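Why do we care about 3D structure at all? Because function follows from shape, and shape follows, mostly, from sequence. That is the central idea of this module. The next example makes it concrete: a single protein chain, its amino acid sequence, and then its structure expressed as tokens.
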Amino acid sequence: MERKWWHGKTAYQIYPKSFYDTNGDGIGDLRGVIEKLDYLQELGVEIVWLSPCYCSPLADQGYDISDYYNIDPRFGTMADMEELIEKGRAHGISIVMDLVVNHCSDEHEWFRKACEDPDGPFGQFFYIRDWHEGEKLPCNLRSYFGGPCWDLLPGHTDKIYFHAFHKKQPDLNWENPALRKVVYKMINWWLDKGLGGFRIDAIINIKKLLPFRDFPADRDDGLCRFKTMLAEAKGVNVFLAEMANETFHRHDAFSVGEVFDEKEEDLPLIIGDNGYFSSMFDFSEKLIGMDARGWYAWKMPTAEEYKKAAFEAQAKSAGVGFYSNIIENHDEPRGVSHYLPEGENSDAAKKMLGGLNFMLRGLPFLYQGQEIGMENTVFTTPEQFDDINTLHEYQVALNAGLTPGEALAAVARVSRDNARTPFQWSADENAGFSSGTPWLPVNPNYREINLASQRGRPDSVYEFYRQLTALRKSVEWAETVVYGETVPYLAEQENLMAYFRKGERTLLVAGNFQNEAQSMFLPTTVKEVLINNLNCFDADAGSLRLGPWQFVVLAL
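And the structure:
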């Protein structure tokens, strides 16, 4: 494997709107990120991915971009961004931005010009089709946020446009070389500023199966989910290779793809040496229990399902490249509320889950608040939801026959809003996030779960994560932690997740995924206990007794 500058890093995602507010308007800003660079450095972070802070009407919280070359005034100025890049570098931190180029905002200049002249050059930047009321739509694909993927082109009664997501997010036509050229120009403009790279949003969606056609309906609405089309679409590799060669590779930039529905044989092309991306997120665990009927039908993952998914992903990427490993992000519920059994959110359990994920081969990606064990928030009415996808899924649940209370409970457990509540800095008003009214209410548990109460306390979740990042950078163990092979161990033992990291030396990573003690066989003598989330270690010749939720990293 070709060694890259980013291989040994620990990455951290910031959702700017909810990270830290410096001007009291209730919205986090770039100055807030700048002020917290010392904190991120202390945590051991060396790559920071910022969710979108470009100009946007926020129909999908910034993933609808109206100007790729400017910072939204809510978050600050271009001068703030330039200062963040510069000061981040001084702290040993590379700043990574979101690259959202499957679609733009309907308020983007390109789309406005397309509406003015659908048959002109900018009309070719989008998928615009002739259509008259009463006619059949070009295809029956369902948008990710519900309803058909087609809407009337503003200002026209005889033309429609295609959107895979919200109707305010028209899809860009990647078949058009002129569109691709301006996208690459924009990417290079940012990289020339010193940006460390990009996280690439929803990128497999850029290749459509053309000409558009219908697919078998999978719900009573007569529509079909988007991924059915993606399974048949061919040729996305041509676009991805071109983009990488024209942009990322020229700058030796870090790039991480949000890649769903990739074809297994394409993995070496995506994340292998000189792949399209430096890395891609491992969503194997996220996919556990998903149901095409909707969120209301999803089943929560078990410990055995989590272990199986993680090990299969590690085997798939072995000898190919690096996954970016996560337990949560801005599009998911809090990991400790999703992967741990209900009511089992003890500090020990949180550390166990985080440690098992962090120590896998690949790039560990923490999401803001994960390092202090932030949990899902509380919803008592559907009016409290901000996320458009949650509101859509609530209606799907009602349509399926659930009562309002059942529908609320079903979608609340996986709502994206859970991860978007403000960071809990302290037990002060508004969790120390803002002196104003937060745009999204803080989690009521902020007085118990916050950074101020954990910083410097050796047994805290925060200090545990600092142990993990320190081990990844240690002179003695970095080679094994970063490049060592992942070898599952005792995979058949229920509610035990254990694996070796084998490189220059051998580590044994083990976590007891239950609230009862259990014993495991030790293959050889333990030389040193490097990390332990409990204040006890019960081992004798050939056996280790793990307490409830105990997690250990052992040098053998």
